Amino acid sequence: MVYIESAFFADQNILSGKKNWTRILVHEMAHVELGVDDFRYAHNVLGMKPEKNNFSTKTCLNNAESWAFFAADCAGALDDGLRGRVLK
Q1: Which residues, 6 or more positions from 71, have their beta carbon under 8 angstroms from its beta carbon?
Q2: Cβ-contact 55, 49 below 8 angstroms
Q3: Is the distance from CB of 15 to CB of 72 less than 8 angstroms?
Q4: Beta carbons of 64 and 31 less than 8 angstroms apart
Q5: Which uninterrupted H or E stretch holds 24?
Q6: Confidence band for 2, pLDDT divided at 50, 70 and 90
Q7: Distances (CA, A) of 78 to 2, 9, 54, 56
Q8: Residue 55 contacts by C-beta under 8 Å, 6 or more apart in sequence?
Q9: Residue 71 has what pLDDT?
Q10: Cβ-based burial of 68 (10 A; exposed 0-12, middle 13-18, buried ≥19)
Q11: What is the tens place of the pLDDT at every residue in 24-79?
Q12: Total Cβ atoms within 10 A of residue 38
C-alpha cells in the first residue's frame, strides 16, 4: 500500500504530473523490493550528488529517492536542468 501525503502536492517537488507520480511509485517500491531507507530527498538543499564526506555512495545506494531519480533519468524524464537541480 502506498500513501500519498500532502507533501506530494507541495512546491518542493522537482517533477510534476505523471513524472512525479511515477517517481513516487518507484521510490516506494524501492522500499518494498530493495529494502532501502530514506536518507535524502531531491529537494534537499545539499542535493543528491554522491560525495565521500557528504552523501556517500553507500548511503546513496540505500536511499529510495536515489533509485527513483535513477529510474527517471534512465527513462528520459530528466533534462539537464532537472538533473542539475537534483544533483546540485
Answers
A1: 22, 23, 26
A2: yes
A3: yes
A4: yes
A5: helix 17-29
A6: low
A7: 24, 19, 23, 22
A8: 39, 40, 46, 48, 49
A9: 96
A10: buried
A11: 899 999 999 999 999 999 989 998 999 988 899 999 999 999 999 999 999 999 99
A12: 12
Give the pLDDT confidence score for residue 88 in this predicted structure.
86
Query: What's the distance, CA 71 to chain centroid?
Result: 9
The pLDDT assigned to 81 comes to: 94
Q: Could you give the dihedral angle defined by the CA atoms of residues 33, 18, 67 and 6, in that order, rounded to the nearest 10 degrees?
A: -80
pTM: 0.85
- Interatomic CA distance for residues 35 and 28, integer angstroms: 10
Q: Which residues pair with 87 in a beta bridge?
A: none
Residue 23 has pLDDT above 80, yes or no: yes
Which residue do the cell numbers 557528504 mark? 54
